[in-house]
Amino acid sequence: MEVFDCIVVGAGAAGIGIGCVLRDLNIERFVILDRSEIGASFRCWPAEMRMITPSFTGNAYGILDLNSVSLKTSPAYTLGTEHPSGPQYADYLEALAAYKQLPVRTGVDVRQVRPLEGGGFDVETDGGVLRSRHVIWAAGEFQYPHTAGFPGAEHAIHSSLVREWAQLPGDEFVIVGGYESGADAAIHLARSGRKVTIIDRSGRWTEKGSSDPSLTLSPFTKDRLRQVEDGRIRLLAGHEVHWIERKEEGGYLIYSETAEGESHFLTTEQPPILATGFAGSLRTVEALFEHEPDGRVRLSEHDESTRVPGLFLAGPSVAHGGLIFCFIYKFRQRFAVVASQIAERLGVDLAPLEPYRREGMMLTDLSCCGEDCTC
Amino acid sequence: MEVFDCIVVGAGAAGIGIGCVLRDLNIERFVILDRSEIGASFRCWPAEMRMITPSFTGNAYGILDLNSVSLKTSPAYTLGTEHPSGPQYADYLEALAAYKQLPVRTGVDVRQVRPLEGGGFDVETDGGVLRSRHVIWAAGEFQYPHTAGFPGAEHAIHSSLVREWAQLPGDEFVIVGGYESGADAAIHLARSGRKVTIIDRSGRWTEKGSSDPSLTLSPFTKDRLRQVEDGRIRLLAGHEVHWIERKEEGGYLIYSETAEGESHFLTTEQPPILATGFAGSLRTVEALFEHEPDGRVRLSEHDESTRVPGLFLAGPSVAHGGLIFCFIYKFRQRFAVVASQIAERLGVDLAPLEPYRREGMMLTDLSCCGEDCTC
User: Residue B106: which CATH number?
Assistant: First the structure.
């Protein structure tokens, strides 16, 4: 049986990013496993979709490209664009893996992670069992569409399953969910001449809102919405969808309510679009974590499971209190926190982490974070 | 005569930014003077022009908005856009000046800065003389179009004097200079249906080039160029314009040469557009600085004149060796360096500078900077 010091599950933004830190720490026996290929989730994006955080080569002046997962790299530099498409971003991750000579094994499906009595893990894959002292769960968060929110959701199409908005048949659409995915879908449908109604629980489009972009639409999306021809997109704000029904004569009936109980019925010819987010791939290892009351996994201050030592979490599902690390420029700040714990236990020299600390890629003091802007 | 501890000349990005630091340091007797109004140069931008560095509210996670001039502020948050127009950016500067209650005096033209024998300065304005121990020269760099490069340049229009590209009469244009201003002009002319030829000394459009955006086109501009309809913009790369002549029958003749001496003649009906940059407003105080062989002013490690102590420089004309601080996200890193020097001499508590240091707004070690990206 192959034995490792560390197994990273997932070769996406989190897996490749943390792999770079392990490489810089000269950890020798580690491997990155991916069911598919490097950056596979990004390759599945709808054709029109782009990163919402802008890429810019500020690196040389201490401002790391927002979409970079590693020091001294910049998607803006590699790709020459401010808002990469999914496949472009996957190209950047591949270039980085090649440059750092990361030990990535693709086409390996992790089925179970089993803690061993004396510490460490057996990682069961479709190609056999691997053993490791440490496991970093960095599997994609955007693989399992969140579809089960209400009765009749099965009649709808999840936004992530659309290959290209321009090719979707139909003239009028209803989108359930008005955050980034819903807005993105609406923008591309409107650009290709269709009319769209968005049903959203909140009214965040119209408010200035928080300065934390996890809680408000990105500037990129606000700009794009302003450019849409008047009347193409209608926002039904403050409405929660309760059910969808298929009508006998064809088409769909969508029922929504406001918080005050005001009812609204909408009909649409085309299947409604669900922009309701994703269930993370954490479920494979869910039982190995304790959970917070809000359902998120409970993590130690080093993003380690509080139930099973040696199992770490990296990527957008990392959360501490009110702080959600859902964007790349946020969760990358925790890579070196995790890696330093593992390195310490392996007795490896921590000196290579100094540049990470200096460049803001090793966020240990969380008191600094959260709502910030005064103007 | 009014006496100050510090006079800041210019209420643009540099002047307002450094004013915020002086305010945070509780320096009491300072004033910011501007010939016109806050952010006046930004209000003069052509209507279609936008900031080329993207604004994003990463502040709460330690990544200050690239266009912010002060901690805990973000143009993306204030303006809700990724690429502000000139007037929008001036609005942000005004909001910031109001929030920080900066002592700005507008409509005051500084005519001369005269060093005094015992130290300090008399600052002669159109409204009388002010005296100060320290002067920070933060006057705009984009006020004096650079037009005198070659014979016949007077026949051309400098890009900064165009109010709106869409309104400029004519169908075909020649632009001299292919860096950001030239590319921006070409993009807007092409978008409004015109054909454009750009003559540029280098061929930087076609190369991947440096990862320092001072030396290569921004991702924003590369993206916009890709979106221009094929054939609308032609780049005559590697050509230097030698002269422009007015033709008897109307129109203009433009002569350019390659480094190898290859000649090229172009004719155009409309006056050529000069996108050849600006002469900074430093000339008012030029004599108070020593100069480097490349013509830039020589600065101490605190951005102070090496000839006249007490006179500091802030803004895009700051340079150290090969490092050019021409973008906002670069030159703002020197505000606190200057302010700490002044505060120290005034015997003021330096503790308020700690957040600046922590957030990368106090760049003292320049060895970190320069070419950086590996991929």
Answer: 3.50.50.60
